[in-house]
Specification:
The protein has 35 helices and 2 strands. By secondary structure, it is an all-alpha fold.
Amino acid sequence: MEQKMLHILQNCKNIRELKQTHLQIFIHGLHHSNFILPKLITVSSAFNLLDYAVSIFQNSCCPNVVAYNNMIKCLIGQSHKEALRVYNRMKVSMVEANSFTFTFLLKCFESSEALEDGRVMHGETLKLGFGSSVFVQNSLLSFYANCSEKLHSAYGVFEEMPERDVVSWNSMIGACMNRGEIESAIGLLDKMPERNIVTWNSVVCGLSKAGNMELAHSVFEQMPERNEVSWNSMISGYVRMGDVKAAQSIFYQMPEKTVASWTAMISGYATTGDLKSAEYIFNHMPVKNVVSWNAMMSGYVHNHMFDQALCLFHNMLINGKCSPDQATLISVLSACAHLGSLEHGKWIDSYIKKNKFHLSIPLGNALIDMFAKCGDVENAKEVFHHMSKRCVITWTTMVSGLALNGKCREAINLFDQMCLEGTKPDDVVFIAVLSACTHGGLVEEGKRAFDQMVQEFDIKPQIEHYGCMVDLLGRAGKLEEAIRFTERMHLKPNAVIWATLLFCCKIHGNEDLLISVTEKIMDQEPSNPGYLTLVSNLSASFGRWEEALSFRVAMRQQRMEKVPGCSSIQVGNKVHEFLAKDTRHVQRKEIYRALDSLNGQLKSESDCAIRILQ
């Protein structure tokens, strides 16, 4: 009967079959069988029923060493404290541990928090005579390499090992590479009595990640044999360094190109802005996976080709061979946000719900950002409130979204809620808060937020924070206070801050500050056409025609042109792009008539408001 139950257990295809089999085991009185119990624990864990597996184990009568080992193995990557409890029960029950017990147990210790408990287990291995077991010693070596900040303890285990195998050497070399101790890793490689492909790949991969491609190439050339990991490590290393030509050379030498190799080249070309080459590689790939599609889509987004990103997403769905994953959806949502395409954004939101995607933090953040940038702040808030977990980026995105849509007071209240709930703010969220204060003209709230950042959270202000405060004070007409603020800055004010002040001079008609602020800008960025145009226009607005003309002449002599402002919007299936003073659009006459009408209405409303105030 035990053999029959074991055979049925091994062939369970789902949770329902597992629980039915467990019931049959219980009915036949086999639930305490040391022949069946270990397998029952393993199968339960394989179906992600860890609590079920723990319950089975805890209710077992006299589990043997195999059952204990299987239970500990199921806890790898879960809770090292729970694994310790299982081991302690094992000791109390007088069940003798073996080498597998400590191999599995040490794999449960994956972070620095488990370091002290791991040291205790190290003592246990020595006390029970496993100091000469190469398997247990290799597990100890990996434990110290993963959990300890320095490699002294790992070196200690390595040096004291009476016997070392290739795994011991590979673990030590990998640990050195992960810590950036390249000389030590190369030294171990030279001393190693026997090397395998894993050894060589560990060194090549480590050197590639460290950016030492010259040495990586040297080791690569010495390799007696290579596999796809060897080639892909070199390609990825050159791509990270921006050396696409070298990556291309390795790629074309590769005897059998894998999906990872093709995808690495797509990422390399896209990163350097060579989208034509990226498209060529993508279109000529014999086999694509979701990562390949994502690399091409991300390349379009990275290079501001948002319309192409959306087209590629549609082609992916039509192709049907690869289903989008969370990374795909995050890229395409970013494209929608930049295009202001709410229609596409809502469709993707529906796609996420229909296909029951988990609302992870990155996906939730992307949805909030898209809805907020497309002006649908209510849907952005709905996503925010539906998220079970939030990080500081989530709060920052929502605060920025509210401010962007004119809900500045609500943005500040949300930031206060964030602090009350215990999420520690960073420097970026304070930029969002200060921007909200600037857009809403909330001077006192802005001052409070700035002081809170410095005094309560000990965040050193960056130039962006100072820029927000200068803009806030300047727009409120507190120009003298804004000047005093710039004088107290621990950083030297840049041209952006002086340009902000200059713009505020125009708003409030302060001609006295115009000259001094202009001098500051011209000292720092005399060749910036944007600032020169601003200075020229402001000089003209104050009737300083000679100065305005001199700036214009200087720009013409130096052949400087201000890059025109550009915006885009998607209407239907077409993206329309507009430049300042655009005359290229086929519907330009209708567009300018609509703009003139809007300007007329705004002027009428403004004149009406002024009369009421007077």
